[in-house]
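User: My instructor asked us to take a sequence, write out its structure as tokens, and then describe one feature of it. I'm not sure where to start. Here is the sequence I was given:
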Amino acid sequence: MRLMAIDISRRNFTKLAGIMVMSPSLLTACASTTKMAQGTLIGGSVRNKGDYEVIVSAENATAMHRLPLPDRGHGIAVSPKTHHAVMFARRPGSYAMVFDYREGQVVKLILAPNNRHFYGHGVYSNDGRWLYATEGERSSSRGIIGVYDVANDYRKIEEFTGFGLGPHEVIVMADDSLVVGVGGVHTNGRQPKNLATMQPSLSYLSPQGELLEQATLGDHHKSIRHLAHDGDTTVLTGQQYRGEAEDYVPLVAIHQRGSVMEELGGEPEQWARFNHYIASIAATETHILATSPRGSCYGIWDKVTRELLEINALPDASGVVVRNGDFHVSSGAGQVIKINPQLDKQRFYSGIQWDNHWSAIT
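Assistant: Let's start with the prediction itself. The structure tokens for your sequence are:
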């Protein structure tokens, strides 16, 4: 059965939500029922113009489940306790879609209120009880972390705020604290309105929403957007540069609480390859990898020395995750690259137009 393209107006979002309540199978009719391997990776993809989906794949990027999305997706949260995952709409997003990645079934479609939007990312708490989502107030871009009760049908129970404008990604550390990449930009849709006064930060929150610490970079035009951690206490940040087009500045930094943010190495001509934007970032015990779809490349740094080791071309370089000590990198051109700790590379062609980010099923 081929699903019709989904109209993303609010009226049809509401209609879509109603259909899901009555018959979730209508939305998952094109989900693969293949059980040949266990799903290991989840990412968004583009099928045709205006036609988007989320894909659960095996490690070699073979699609196991394909679920249509109401609109373009961005980041994916994976529950550490259940088989649930959540695809968040690309900012300014109107939905967060909860689905069962093992069965390929939609569980719930969460719709943003008229005065709010999703920023494209979220994360589950370490015990799987809560879902945290980066959200904003449309009129002001006031940053919000929405807190959803997983066991209570993902009902929103609380909002954390007071850390700045335009939060993009949120991650959870081993001690249950939250880390928020605050872009600092007030936007109307996707149009920035305050570039001269923007105030990005890396903000640490307690599980109760208390602001614990904020770290900043020296250049306020570096909008802190994408985050990762190394499983311990180190946070990695990828930036979008909002300054002069002819300036090529470092776009990846590393941080531990109580210290200053440290930018990774690279010459201006090397940073120029990234075209002012880092999309996804991840770290192993020895290396850091960051992608740039705008630059159609990815870079690898030594985690100890902070030195840039290599920049490799990859058309529309998109997601990166670490699984079993290896990097897995996706591309909008369908390529998938597996990189081991010795930086040896194994390439696959998936035939899938991967979009934005990947998440690993642990």
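For the description part of your assignment, you could build on this observation: Residues 28 and 63 are 14 Å apart (CA to CA). Try explaining in your own words what that tells you about the chain.
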